[in-house]
């Protein structure tokens, strides 16, 4: 995948992993809250409710996280296969890969600021 700010593929794998970790953190927090509610139900002697809160407090956030993880993996796989197919299409069509845009503009000031050192006035 090309990068974070590419218009064709706005999601990079590292950004996707970070978003998944953030969502996992919130789902874990939700699970902890449900487990505290289950402990409160046990203290209040509502054992059936506590069992359901315990089961749903673990199962539902985990199922949501697992679904998000699978969708993220599918998205990464689709983007990689798209890049490969695009490269094969370019190779078969005889098109050259587009040149990457330069980091700096091609102006005389940028040329002088390159690794060749500063521009001195010509000696006459």
Structural summary, described in words:
The chain has 124 residues and is an all-alpha fold. It contains 3 helices and no strands. Helices cover 67% and strands 0% of the residues. Helix 1 runs antiparallel to helix 2 (47-93). The mean pLDDT is 78.
What's the SSE blueprint?
Blueprint: H1 13-43, H2 47-93, H3 108-112
Mean pLDDT: 78
Tell me what portion of residues adopts beta-strand conformation: under 5%
Calculate Rg over CA atoms: 27 Å
Instruction: State the end-to-end CA separation.
Output: 53 Å
Output the structural class: mainly alpha
Number of strands: 0
Specify the biggest β-sheet.
none
Structure in a nutshell:
By secondary structure, this protein is an all-alpha fold. The protein is built from three helices and no strands.
Please give a handful of descriptors for the protein shown.
single chain, 124 residues, mainly alpha
